[in-house]
Specification:
Elements lengths: L1 H8 L3 H4 L1 H11 L4 H5 L5 E4 L14 E16 L9 E9 L4 E7 L4 H6 L5 E11 L2 E5 L2 E4 L6 H5 L4 E4 L8 H11 L12 H6 L5 H9 L4 H32 L12 H8 L6 H14 L6 E6 L5 H14 L3 E5 L3 H15 L16 E5 L5 H13 L2 E6 L13 E7 L6 H8 L7 E6 L5 H6 L5 E5 L9 E7 L4 H16 L3 E5 L10 H5 L4 H6 L6 H10 L7 E4 L5 H12 L5 E4 L12 E6 L7 H8 L9 E7 L6 H11 L3 H11 L2 H8 L16 H17 L7 H21 L1
Parallel strand pairs: 4-6, 9-14, 9-15, 10-12, 10-13, 11-12, 13-14, 16-21, 17-19, 17-20, 18-19, 20-21
Antiparallel strand pairs: 1-8, 2-3, 2-5, 3-4, 5-6, 5-7
Helix pairs in contact: 9-10, 10-27, 10-28, 11-13, 12-13
């Protein structure tokens, strides 16, 4: 079998020459012939129709096809050429709708001066900048599009010119020429789709799809190729997930059925309110899963404050009732402590099993984090090993080898997107048989992302907010355009404090970092360049507020680099109402619960992602008084960053925002960040637009895997899976 695959596995350096291959590997991550064949054009230019020069994005690397309108050579005096011998060639190109200035300097003027004559058509590539308020390309690379005979036309056969995702080191047409060189190998591409599926859906064969995407003769060719390649990506990914689900159903687990009058019943009797219909429905789904003899794998999505923790706690108590132990994993220590506090408060004397004054059905609830003192830690570990503690709440410290459970029955993971598959597997190994797994997230995940990223989990959604929650009003505060708005924001904070409430001020940075010039130079977008200042920091802001607009109020700071005991003390004082204003980093993003806090001011809000802002905002309005969230930004009105903030201010619907978030970022980022890098290998599949394809591919994959779990009959699919999982494995090793 492997013999067939060889042409696509050939390293590019043996085909293209070392220099080009090196740039492709370093800048585009392409190493083999197969990689290059799967580097698809981003769009296509038609010979007769040109890019609208008027719409070119600033500071991006662009390729345009246009005609030279005129060319003028200027001489000027400069320090290098004092006697007026400096030369500058200015060429104006047009596409009929707009014009663009090209400039060449010095010795670079001779060749273009000879070649770029008025009327000549060419492709130009370079970075768009503004000079004297006009768009220009300085020293662009170019490729002439000659008449009927030239070699350029040979290599651009067909009316559609593919434009590839390119880099400054490698223009689109050079990538196109390299593709031309390896295209014959496409004939050898092994088809991952089962023949019946391909024929049944009328999809073209893979070699044909590769030819059509790189060398289309018509728009119909491009559509055929896209339709086919989308299916490949969706299907191979869904087969990988279906196999993981299938393998999970083969695992044994202990069924956990709560006893009718045990701990859970006692807990429910204590609750001062009734569960919402949504909470009851989700609880039923979870209890049904817990009662089966293979491990539950469920994702519980719920808006901030929809009562997920309560649902999870009831599941944990049901498992304790059935003789097992339950563990809850939180992404940070602050959160683990917070969960521990709220769980013990909700359980009251039920959390003091075996202690004086504890209830007869009670159990012990222990906290386990990395920074605990040795004695407390030893005690907690002992309670886990003997089974004395039915419920444990902790950070990733729970996954360490030293931690032994008596009988682990359920693992609840809070905020899955910070917690990869490998960690789930490590924890799974802690039970005598794999424990049941419940994953919670307050980041609303559009259905398709749930099907791709969390495709190995069943999904439950809590979408009602419990009674007694107040609405949150959100406003953008344009600090640069309207400084008096910012002054008013601080007045609002004082007004809320005067009413007996409290406030959060969130900043992107702590402010005690060493100024590391290397870090500062990295990733500068045009917008960052425009404002040249580092993001606001907690320590500076707290200092300025205490001396200025919030003088006389009790202001404290909270950030991730503080000692855990100090963090806890600050949080306690804030929760107890002793502090008026807490200036913090995103440590408070998840799970901090202070119902008396009613206003949140987010500084440099444009530095946060949409879903992060939504999470942060969920920290206010948790009590009876309405919440207020002020998004402070110095970005100009028209910028993308401001539009993002306006979107957050305009809706409280997390699912709506998560769609906006996805549309604004590339899917690869969402999927890559959410789990391992293989997900970001989506090249033509758009997670939002291709919902149907993903759903259908998921169904097809499930049927196929049920019939042939080891894919005995589908060598092409096995090869494609190996490639996908290799990427995952590499990612996993890199994460190591």
């Amino acid at each position: 079998m492997p013999a067939l695959q060889e042409p696509l596995k050939q390293p590019l350096k043996s085909v293209l020459g070392p220099a080009t291959a090196k740039v492709m590997a370093e800048h585009l991550g392409l190493h083999t012939v197969g990689d290059l064949l799967h580097h698809y054009p981003r769009r296509y230019e038609e010979r007769g129709q040109l890019t609208h020069l008027a719409d070119l994005p600033m500071d991006e690397h662009v390729t345009v096809v246009a005609q030279v309108a005129d060319a003028r050579l200027h001489t000027f005096a400069s320090s290098r050429a004092p006697r007026g011998k400096g030369q500058r060639l200015e060429v104006t190109i047009t596409d009929g709708s707009g014009r663009l200035q090209l400039v060449f300097f010095g010795n670079g003027v001779h060749k273009p001066h000879k070649e770029l004559l008025p009327g000549t058509r060419a492709m130009f590539a370079g970075k768009v900048s503004v000079f004297n308020r006009r768009l220009q390309l300085a020293h662009p690379a170019y490729e002439l599009l000659k008449g009927e005979d030239g070699e350029a036309v040979e290599s651009w056969a067909g009316a559609l010119i593919p434009m590839y995702p390119a880099t400054a080191k490698l223009e689109s047409w050079k990538i196109g020429k390299a593709v031309q060189t390896v295209l014959p190998s496409a004939q050898e591409a092994l088809d991952p789709l089962p023949e019946s599926l391909r024929a049944g859906r009328g999809l073209v064969a893979l070699p044909e799809a590769l030819l059509k995407i790189h060398r289309p003769h018509s728009k119909a060719d491009i559509a055929d190729a896209h339709a086919r390649l989308k299916w490949d990506e969706a299907f191979v990914l869904q087969v990988a997930l279906a196999r993981r689900r299938h393998a999970d159903t083969q695992l044994p687990a202990v069924a956990r059925v709560p006893v009718p009058d045990g701990l859970l019943a006692a807990f429910d009797d204590r609750l001062p309110f009734t569960l919402t219909e949504g909470q009851r429905k989700v609880s039923r789904e979870i209890f049904a899963d817990l009662a089966t003899e293979h491990p539950m794998h469920r994702l519980l999505q719920g808006e901030v404050g929809s009562g997920k923790t309560l649902v999870a706690l009831r599941a944990m108590l049901a498992v304790v009732d059935a003789g097992g132990q339950a563990a809850m994993l939180a992404p940070t220590e602050v959160l683990a402590q917070q969960h521990h506090r709220s769980v013990t408060e909700m359980m009251g004397e039920l959390a003091e099993g075996g202690m004086l004054g504890g209830a007869e059905h009670g159990t012990k609830v222990v906290l386990l984090t990395g920074s605990m003192g040795a004695a407390a830690r030893r005690k907690a570990l002992l309670d886990l090993a003997t089974g004395e503690a039915g419920v444990v709440i902790g950070t990733h410290a729970l996954i360490e080898d030293k931690v032994q459970f008596h009988d682990l029955g359920l693992v609840v993971v809070d905020e899955q997107h910070r917690f990869g598959v490998e960690q789930r597997d490590a924890l799974r190994g802690k039970g005598r048989q794999p424990p049941h797994l419940l994953v919670m997230t307050a980041t609303p995940i559009p259905r398709t992302v749930a099907m791709t990223v969390f495709g190995d989990l069943e999904t439950s959604v809590l979408d009602q907010l419990p009674a007694g929650r107040s609405p949150i009003a959100s406003h953008v505060v344009p600090a640069a355009d309207k400084p008096h708005f910012l002054a008013r924001a601080w007045e609002r904070v004082r007004e809320e404090v005067a009413k007996g409430h409290q406030a959060y001020v969130v900043c992107p940075r702590i402010g005690d970092e060493e100024d590391d010039p290397k870090k500062a130079v990295a990733k500068k977008s045009a917008e960052d360049e425009a404002e040249k200042r580092p993001p606001l920091a907690v320590l500076d802001v707290a200092d300025r507020l205490g001396k200025g607009p919030l003088h006389g109020l009790k202001v404290e700071v909270l950030h991730g680099r503080m000692q855990p005991d100090d963090k806890d003390a600050v949080m306690r004082r804030f929760a107890a109402g002793e502090t008026d204003v807490l200036v913090a980093t995103t440590v408070i993003e998840v799970g901090v619960n202070v119902p008396n806090a009613t206003v949140m001011v987010i500084m440099d809000a444009d530095r946060f992602g949409v879903s992060q802002l939504h999470q942060l905002r969920g920290r206010v309005g948790r009590g009876a008084a309405p919440g207020l969230c002020l998004l402070v930004s110095e970005m100009p009105e028209a910028s993308a960053a401001r539009q993002r903030l306006n979107a957050v201010a305009s809706t409280l619907d997390g699912f709506e925002l998560s769609r906006i978030d996805l549309e604004q970022r590339r899917e690869g980022d969402v999927l890559g960040q959410a789990q391992s890098g293989a997900r970001s290998s989506l090249r033509v599949l758009a997670v939002i637009d291709d919902e149907e394809i993903i759903a259908e591919a998921r169904e097809e994959a499930a049927v196929l895997v049920a019939a042939d779990p080891n894919l005995e009959h589908l060598p092409g699919l096995r090869t494609a899976l190996d490639a996908l999982l290799d990427e995952e494995r590499e990612q996993y090793l890199e994460k190591g």
